[in-house]
Amino acid sequence: MRRLLAWLTLWSVAFGVAEAAVVVYLRRLCYPDQPLDGPLFPLRLVEPLVLGTELAREAATLLMLLGVAFLAERRPLRRFAVFALCFGAWDLVYYAVLKLLLGWPASLLEWDVLFLIPAPWAAPVLAPVLVSLALVATALPILRRIDADAPAPFSPRDWCIEAGCGALILASFLWNAVPVARGELPGAFPWWLFLAGWLGGVAWFARRWQARR
């Protein structure tokens, strides 16, 4: 298990570096008249070829994360944990490398574009960082404490509650999708909606994990 976690961590670090490199290129391409550590908003409209390529790259990113999870584990719960671990570690490394290379973001409250599928996701950097920390913090105990042959510790109700909390977080990321897609500045971020989903998901996992123990 230590060897598996080490390789998954190294893969996530390498993937985060590659993702950050892509953003450096996109910054230079889409904002040639601005410093690389400048704000992203309002978004610059790009030609259809660049936009289509970026959408394809994002879809490929998710497929690569899923592929690693399916290759690393055979049980659905542990596959999900591998996906969560790699996703969270990749995202944290991504922001760390951008800070190192560009000096961006200037603070955790600076706005970022998270994904473009199916519409632009936008939020202060602190929000995806909190999500990534939660993913890593929940994935590690699952991988370290739940054996491949152990009974499932979570019920369908648990998964439905966690999915509902995830939907609240996603709704907060899409809250400003319309103005962002129009090239306008995003409005206020709905922290109340995000924190309802994030705190609810973390608290429910902690409750069920404690009950299992």
Low-confidence stretches: none
Q: How many helices does DSSP assign?
A: 7
Lateral strand order in the biggest sheet: 1-2
Number of strands: 2
Bin the helical content.
Answer: 55-70%
Q: What separation lies between the terminal Cα atoms?
A: 20 Å
Structure description:
The protein is mostly helical and 213 residues long. It has one domain (2-212). The chain contains 7 helices and 2 strands; from the N terminus they run αααββαααα. The protein has a two-stranded antiparallel ribbon. The longest helix has 29 residues, at 2-30. The radius of gyration is 18 Å and the shape is globular. The chain starts with a helix and ends with a helix. The model has no long low-confidence stretch (mean pLDDT 91).
Question: What's the short story on this structure?
Answer:
With 213 residues, the protein is mostly helical. It has helices at 2-30, 48-72, 76-102, 126-145, 156-173, 177-181, 191-212; strands at residues 111-113, 122-124. It has a two-stranded antiparallel ribbon.
